[in-house]
Structures are given as C-alpha cells and as structure tokens.
Design brief:
12% helix; disordered N terminus; Cathepsin D, subunit A, domain 1; disordered C terminus; 17-stranded mixed beta sheet; 512 residues; single chain
Length: 512
C-alpha cells in the first residue's frame, strides 16, 4: 500500500457480531499499485502522474477527491473564496497530524503545502534558506518534496520596506537593504522562523459552479531561518497563520473588500477538510462569543461547564481554538476533573503509563469492547451552546495490543482546543461578530448559495479586528515582534507518528 497519505489509506476493519474480522485493502487514485495498473492497461502515461511527494501530488489528491465527491458549494461567483487548487484540506500524519492545504504563490505560480494555523498570524514559506527543513534524511522525506520560494524568480514579488504599515520591526531594518525583518517565536521550545517580509500574488478562486480566478497581493514571510519543530516535521513547507492580526491573510483579504471578515474550517473524520474565506456559516449553527483580549486578541472562548458521560462538572475556563495543535491541552484543575471523571466511568482495564505515548489515560481494547460505552465529552459554551466532542479518544496500535486513549494532554501554560475536538464540525471564525460558530457537518455536503451574503465593497468591510494582535513590544526599542499564542510540542507528533493509527473511534463504533 501507498502510505504517503495515511488518513485515506487505512486497512478497513469490519467487526461482525460473531467477532470475525474481514480486511480489504484500499488503494488511492495515485498509489503505486494503481499507477502500475494504469500504465499496463494504457489508461495513463507516465506524464499524467504527479511525482510522489511533490506539492503537485498532494494538490492532485485534493482535486481528485473534490471531483469524486461532486462537491459544489455555491451557484454564483459572489461567495467565499478558496485557494486556486480548491478549498480541500488534508490531515497528514507524517507532518505532525495537522491539516494542510495547497497554496500557489507568485508568477509563475509555485505551490506550497502549508499547515493551517488559527493560533498564529503570519503566513510564511521557506525562502532563500540558510536554515530550513531538510529535504532528505528525515521521517517525512520519503513522503514530501520541499518547495522553496525565490522572490527573484517571481515577476510579481515586491519587497516590503521599513515604512510599510505591517513592518512591526522597522527599527531593526538595515539601511543598506531597507528590507523589513520579521521574527516569529512560538511557545514550543526553540521553535521560530526568521526572515524578511515580502508581497506577492496569492492565487484564489471563488467557490461554486461559476468559478472566478482571482489574484490578491498578500504580505508573508520569506522564511530564511527556521528552528525547533519546523526542522523535524512540523510545517516543513510553511505555515499559514489565520489569526486576528492585520497581517494574516483573512485580514488582508477582508480589508481589500474581497471577502467578509470571516472564514470557516471543516474537519472531516476521514482526514479531509475544507477552508472557505468569507464564510459566515449558517443560521442554524451554534455560537459563542470570543473572549477578546485587547492586547493580544485571538480565538479564545469561555466554557461554562463540562459533561463527561453521566457526570456534570460545573466550572468555567477559557480555551483557544487552535487548528495548529493536533490534540487538546487542558490545565489543572480542568484536566484532572475531566480525566478522573472519564476514568471512573470506563469499563476497560487501564494500561500502565508508557513514555512513548503522550496520553495519560489509555485502556486495553478487546473483541468484546463496546465503543458506545466509552464516556462522551461535551463542552457547554458561554451562551449555553453545546459542543459535543465526536472524537475525545484516539485508537492506536502497538505491536501486540490495541488501545484507546483519552486524547487530552495536561498543559502547564494554557487551555487549547485542538483539531481532534473539532473533528466532525464546520467551525466558523467570525471576526465581524467576534463569535465562534460550529455545526455538525459532512465536509462534502452541498450548501445553498443563499446562506452566504454577497461579497462586500471594500469601503464597507469592517477593519481587521486586531491591528497589532499577537505582537510583543520590545522593552528596548519599542518595536513589535510576532509571538504565537500556542505550543506545538514536537515530541507529541513524533510519539503519535510512531504508531499506526488504526481507526478513529467513531469509525470503529459504527462497525460493532
């Protein structure tokens, strides 16, 4: 089997009442097996096949998936925008278990497979590298080909000078070059990106049957030096910050009048998702207000309670909705309350702690295990919205045993609702109303056009919510530096990548 796209290439396990298991191999459209068959039968020539591991390869997977499912979002050209290759996103186990999208930059267009991150603001790609992620000798090298942006090759590339409104570190500019430097430091230990800001065309399309090609100038980071997690498998081809700062792409697109100041992300249980810029969601979605910190606004919400199985925990806490973190992190006392309540209601035997597994509460699964008896988890949000967690546990396999673990990690810094808790939902980050919306959603569903307001004129677009959001003032020179608000611990993704993810728990449950 071709394992370059692990979430789509599972060995399906069908559990029958008598305990027998039947297995069927699945081969993706661009697997080596299908390619060989296509060539032998004359259905395809070598030139028709994208190079395995290239950005074109992943883009082709996403485009084929979109065509196969027949998804059409809108019937007119005034709806939300998506990337040139479509609005599909894909979760890649070999690259930190995050959702990635194919983006095209510059003229001629060059494709990058970037991690989508609501926990930070700056969009950056490897560029004029003096220290970037290696292209060989790593865990992802066999599955991925790194693209490098070169502003000298793109005819539409523009330098961001020190007087630009988005140049927060203007006092660090060099007089000889007048280039605007940037530095993003992440909470994750020694993880950062450094370089200069540039502008170039981002290739976009309107969604729907009448697709309109658009190109918008965006400001992004020419990442010359990366450190920490960016060198060992987390976003080796760049990171697409979706935060509230005016430098984020959603802020730029809305300030130019191209979209409403909102976007949505859909997280499918099969590892495929969607991102739509300008999407306000639907009238029947649940919502909760953002708890906006004027100094550092981000997508933080307030939970007023927890339900774990049959137990109700009456407690308030704030948490950041962060697509750039694979799993959910909770601080004490919330973490202990949730995990102990979960443990008290589990019937299976708990597995002893294992330093290779980042989760504290793991349990043995047997043929008699009934996934419907695993305690559920529901967050009550401010405003009384109920956020039911469809995947609170993760099923993993070691050499000799099948386990399920409560996919929550104890945090010492902040509470983070990660991708695993968002799975099964379309999550709407509405920066106009300052609300988070959510609705149970099949990411392939067809939406009606009247659920999306027409594209506004530039003069009527609310300003970007967070001018200077996520910036930390320097005590020395008064300049600002970008600072992400979340942790991306590389050891977590490495530990999870060391195991074969057999089935997400709901898929397992549906076959019992």
């Amino acid at each position: 089997m071709d394992h370059s796209l692990t979430p789509l290439l599972l060995l399906i396990l069908v559990y029958l009442c008598d305990g027998r298991i039947f297995s069927f191999e699945m081969h993706h459209r661009y697997s080596d097996r299908v390619r060989k068959w296509s060539h032998e039968t004359g259905r395809a020539s070598p030139g028709d096949w994208p190079l395995k591991g290239s950005v074109d390869y992943y883009a082709a997977l996403l485009q084929h998936d979109r065509a196969l499912r027949g998804r059409s979002t809108l019937s007119d050209s005034d709806g939300p925008l998506s990337f040139a290759d479509g609005n599909s996103t894909i979760r890649l186990t070999s690259l930190g278990f995050l959702h990635y999208a194919s983006v095209k930059l510059g003229t001629p267009g060059m494709k990058f497979l970037v991690a989508l991150d609501t926990g930070s603001d700056l969009f950056w790609v490897p560029c004029e590298c003096s220290r970037c992620a290696p292209t060989d000798g790593t865990t992802y090298a066999s599955d991925f080909e790194l693209s490098i942006y070169n502003p000298k090759i793109s005819s539409t590339s523009k330098k961001v000078d020190c007087n630009h409104s988005l140049c927060y570190r203007h006092n660090k500019c060099l007089e000889t070059s007048n280039e605007c430097p940037y530095m993003v430091s992440y909470v994750s230990a020694e993880t950062s990106t450094t370089g200069v800001l540039v502008q170039d065309l981002l290739h976009l399309t309107t969604e729907g049957s009448h697709r309109e090609v658009l190109k918008a100038y965006v400001t992004f980071g020419c990442g010359r030096v990366q450190t920490g997690s960016f060198l060992d498998g987390a976003a080796p081809n760049g990171l697409f910050g979706l935060g509230m700062d005016k430098i984020s792409v959603p802020s730029i697109l809305s300030s130019e009048g191209l979209i409403r100041n909102s976007f949505s992300m859909c997280f499918g249980q099969d590892g495929i998702g969607r991102i739509s810029f300008g999407d306000l969601g639907s009238n029947d979605q649940q919502e909760t207000p953002f708890s906006v910190n004027s100094f550092h606004p981000n997508y933080t919400v307030i939970s007023t309670g927890l339900r774990v199985g049959m137990s109700v925990i009456d407690t308030d806490f704030t948490a950041l909705f962060d697509s750039g973190t694979s799993f959910t992190y909770l601080m004490d006392p919330i973490y202990t309350m949730l995990s102990k309540s979960f443990h008290s209601q589990v019937r299976e035997k708990r597995r002893p702690a294992d330093s290779r597994i980042p989760f504290e509460y793991c349990y043995y699964m047997s043929p008699e295990s009934n996934a419907s008896l695993i305690p559920s988890v529901t967050l009550t949000m401010k405003g009384d919205g109920q956020f039911f967690v469809y995947e609170p546990v993760l099923v993993i396999s070691t050499q000799n045993e099948l386990l399920y673990c409560l996919a929550v990690v104890k945090s010492t810094e902040l509470n983070i609702i990660g991708q695993n808790f968002m799975t099964g939902y379309r999550v709407v980050f509405n920066r106009e109303k300052l609300t988070l919306g959510w609705k149970k959603f099949d990411c392939y569903d067809i939406e009606e056009a009247d659920k999306y307001p027409p594209r506004p004129n530039a003069t009527h677009v609310p300003p970007a919510v967070a001018a200077g959001v996520g910036n930390v003032s320097s005590h020395g020179g008064g300049h600002k530096e970008y600072m992400s608000s979340f942790a991306k611990p590389s050891q977590l993704s490495q530990a999870v990548s060391a195991y074969l993810i057999i089935l997400q728990i709901l898929a397992f449950n549906s076959r019992l």
